[in-house]
Amino acid sequence: MSLLNTALFADPELDALLDDGAHLAAIVRFESLLASASAAEGLVPTTAAEEIEQHLKQFSPDPAALGTGLARDGVVVPTLVATVREGLSVANRKWLHFGATSQDAIDTAWALQLAQIVPVLQLRLGHLSSTLDGLVVQFGGQKLMAHTRMQAALPFTLTDKLVVWLRTIEECSSGLVFAAERALAVQLGGPVGNRASFEGKGDAIAARLAHLSGLRDAPAWHSNRVALCRLGAELAAISGVLGKLGADIALMTQSEVGQAAIRGGGGSSTMAHKNNPVEAELLVTLARHSAGNLGTLYQALVHENERSGAAWTLEWLTLPTIVRNAGCGLLLAQSLLGRLSFPPQDIA
Question: Mean of the pLDDT values across residues 173-177?
């Protein structure tokens, strides 16, 4: 990982939930749960499902082999499944991944990862709301000059300013819950999305798979990416409102304005008096970065026919970045607000 990410945009907690190891572990979990669900519905022999589950518990993928397969196939699942099958008895090999397609494994894996990530973001949003509440209690009664269109407008109070920030954070929290409820769903469609490969038991297997995984039961959504894109939009909205917060703070801390002060801001290589609002600036950067990535993510709605390799790969390039930007922004905002104060203003 680059110095830029580790120094300016560090988020080890989300990195661990988004990295290749986490994604592969989620794919492996899908294969294990699929075998269990299929056995419970009588499609796969119970002994085969038990062997698959036991083998997957101790399976360790070869990153080099998976990389080679990914470069060849465009997806990691064919090589992963072939490797796992080598460790199974000959009689039970065909039951691994039975009826499923690569997209079932990868989409469900992403849903499993996001199901772990969303509560982390909700917790951070809650912490940020609490911190803003504390600032309202501590400083809210102070007079402040409001600004509209970058010009001095009329006096109001700091509470009026902070409550706007607080309400946008709360809006993001409720929006994230709603979007996640729709998007965090099991993917199970088989080769062309109609579940025909599950011999009439596809709906029952999907329902059982949803129960086992903690995800929502849903029809196959191979080429229907609306819910996933809406989740991306809610994540980008987090970055967006944090960018508004950062822009406000950067303006309020200008030397000639002095409406706010940051303890321990950034320094300059030549001007010792500088106290640069680095974290506020980074929030603006992340907001603009996610806005651009969100536009690209929505291109994945153009999902030709029953499966699009191009649109699918586009999601892999953009959605994790939007997720990480939201998480990192929440950490930066929490740090920034914790070091923010508001000097009294001389306002009649």
Answer: 97
